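Researcher: Dear colleague, please comment on this protein.
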Amino acid sequence: MRTMTARFNIVLVEPEIPPNTGNIARLCAATGSRLHLVGTLGFSIDDRHLKRAGLDYWDKVEVRQWGSLEELQDAFPDGRFWYLSTKVAHNCYGPEIYRPGDFLVFGKETAGLPDALLAANAARCLTIPMPGKVRSLNLSNAVAVVLYEALRQTGQLHE
């Protein structure tokens, strides 16, 4: 079992758009969170757009790559995983549920997380309410919304 030193763990399953991942890496650097990249990426980790979006913060964020979500989960058997999706009709991301070290899992930009994964983890699925007329938020915006709420809930915004 590994110990958790990050405030939170941001998990991106098969991210496709380099600037989104770069922005999320910058967010992780700003919040002391760890970034996990899972599965096949839609870009090279050396992609200039990825680096540009993260600016000069790449050396300030811990980034880990995993072949699969199962591999990540096996490495952290005591980890609490929360699955964020627009496909979930209830379970708002906001209730007082988070603990430092939790894993916040987001799917790829074009398809989100697989339906089978969501069905198997229904009690741990969360959504961001969108009363407007859009299907979803940009991935980096969604990560920021949920991560900052988790930091607020755990009293880590002013540390």
